[in-house]
Amino acid sequence: MSSNQLAVFFIVSVIFYIIGALASLSSFSSSKWSNRLSNTFALLASSLLTYLMIYKLTYSGDVSINIDFNTNIPFLDMKFNIDNLSAFFIMIISIVAIIVSLFSYTYMSHYFSEKNISVFGCLYNLFIASMVLLVSSSNLLLFLVFWELMSLLSYFLVIYEHEKEEVQKAGRIYIIMTYTGTACITAAFVLIAAYTGSFNFTSINLQSIPQGAANIIFVLLLIGFGTKAGIIPVHIWLPYAHPVAPSNISALMSGVMIKMAVYGLIRFIFNILPMGHLWWGVVLLCVGIASALFGITYSIASTTNIKRLLAYSSIENMGIILAGLGIMLIARASGNYFLLSLSLTATLLHTLNHAVFKSLLFMGAGAVQYSVHTKNMEKLGGLIKKMPIASVLIFVGCLSISAVPPFNGFISEYMIFKTIISSISYFASSQSFLMVVVLMIAAAALALTGALVAFCFVKFFGISFLGMPRSKVADTAKEPGKPMLVALAIAAVLCLLLGIFPNFAINLIHSVDSQLVGIKTLGAALPLTVPRELPVHNSSLNISSGLIAILLVILGALSLLVVMALRKRTSVERYNTWDCGYTKLNSKMQYSATGFSKSLRIIFRGLFKPARDLKITEGVAPYHIKAGRYTTSTVKFFEKYLYQPFVSTIIYFSRKMRFTIQTGSIHAYLMYFFVIMVLMLLYYSITA
């Protein structure tokens, strides 16, 4: 298939998304048909894109897909360039969109009686298309247009249930943080254009950006893209937006939208900025590790809402990805191209793996909400008996995110951990003591994060799916619809296949690796042969490890069958559990989500500042109470000690300035105009 044919099919895919949006609106009177049409066209477009991008990464080498549209808009060239990096991220978008579109066939049915599905279907298709076009853009302004479109469409999807007060609050926080990030990205683009004289990626001269300006641009890009990625401390929108958004949108946002920040960082740091200082990588590494550690501790200790737990977990995984990017920049600045290639492979692999297992978990949370009508873990329990198929598939997601072999989370997290260890060896040999200390702390923090992730998802699955039902709605739960189960099954199978056979994904990443690492930086081309030397690209090693994993799975299944067969043939005498004199166990005699995480709140009490409140309604005697209510609370550290003081200061300053400037005097207002005109004339005379 030639480059022109790929371009034609790419345009057809985008047209399918647009047709899906219009078809959803055309079925305004029928929610059922709007839902079917929007998801069908999204499914067709995403399937075609998945095939095209895998073909591009496998067979097209370094040949890019170029699409040009003539326009009379100044500085805005409608040029799209799909190189291997763009193709890899489009593949991730389309894979997740396929799964989520299947899931949405049934999931959206619980909105039919109360919401306008046609508008949702339109926004849904345009949202996916905006991300596809974003990573295809070859112009700074075009990139910014689609970034803004993606942000606005996701905002409207987040506030889909806008009649609820909590949804309105989440929407306000999300849009404020989004525009804060966009302002930083815009400022970085203006600086790039000012120094290079061009808005096109291919026309930008790296040598024209001085190092001081490059440092400022790097900081602006880190804040701008980091806000969308949800890194600490600009993460506060995630725990508010995800719990209120529809679960299929949460799956798209966490699975692929926040990855657009990863794409932006890789694209602009490698393509636009010259060789950076070592501190760029150190900052990214430290921010990533801090995000991973703080994100998972908040996930465990401060919430009983399953979607908020997953939102904090997304912060943790984005932190791991940013840590991988940090090692990339450290290797790039140090001239260690082997480590650069290895860390790039590990980072992109974890980006793909996280997209799959996090979309699986958010869809699983949606399946629970669809069946039980609650997201509160304190009202769940015993779901594995009521919805066994969905429970097993969600359990696969829990194993994957906990980096349990042979699932996909293990291989990519292990590779990122391996890059940090390799970095320690490299800097130890060069006697860089300070870097060794930083990397050792990062490795220890990443290991601690891995243990906390396992703790978090033992809590998530154990409290929600095991034990006894804690409410009537949990006791009456049942399996979700077949399309939802099919979507969960596809994601679960991908988690297993990417873990057992990572070589396929690594080979796709290798094409990105060879093209990106071979980019000319400051006139010197990096060696293209480096990626082939990576031990992870050894096919025999991957095949043997895959066979071992398959054998372990088969042996485990056979052992389980033997145990079940012996259990049926053996007569077992059953007795009730010893229960301190009670005749029957009930749901109150098991761990709650709050109680399960109490130990961690005590360990990290300096961060969470836990508080307890016990209210007792007295009865006839002090020891015969009528009722007792015990509540616990934790402090949102960054909101209380960073954002609230900052917002209060801004409000105070604004009020003071309002009363100072808005005096009500016409003479003062005329003086303002006169001073501004004089300053403008001075500026023009200096620059003319």
From TrEMBL:
**InterPro entries given in the database record:** ComplexI-like_HydComp (IPR052175), NADH_UbQ_OxRdtase (IPR003918), ND/Mrp_TM (IPR001750), Proton_antipo_N (IPR001516)
Any one GO CC term of this protein is:
plasma membrane
Q: Report the subcellular localization.
A: Cell membrane; Membrane
Q: How does it sit in the membrane?
A: Multi-pass membrane protein
Q: What is its main location?
A: membrane
GO molecular function term, any single one? NADH dehydrogenase (ubiquinone) activity
Which stretches are transmembrane?
Answer: 6-25, 37-54, 85-105, 117-135, 141-160, 172-196, 216-238, 250-272, 278-297, 309-331, 337-368, 389-411, 431-463, 484-506, 543-566, 666-686
Q: Which stretches make up the NADH-Ubiquinone oxidoreductase (complex I) chain 5 N-terminal domain? A: 76-110
Enumerate the Gene Ontology biological process terms: ATP synthesis coupled electron transport
UniProt keywords (A-Z) are: Cell membrane, Membrane, Oxidoreductase, Transmembrane, Transmembrane helix
Residues forming the NADH:quinone oxidoreductase/Mrp antiporter transmembrane domain are 137-431
Q: Which domain of life is it from?
A: Bacteria
Q: What protein family does this chain belong to? A: Belongs to the CPA3 antiporters (TC 2.A.63) subunit A family.
Annotated protein name in UniProt? NADH/Ubiquinone/plastoquinone (Complex I)
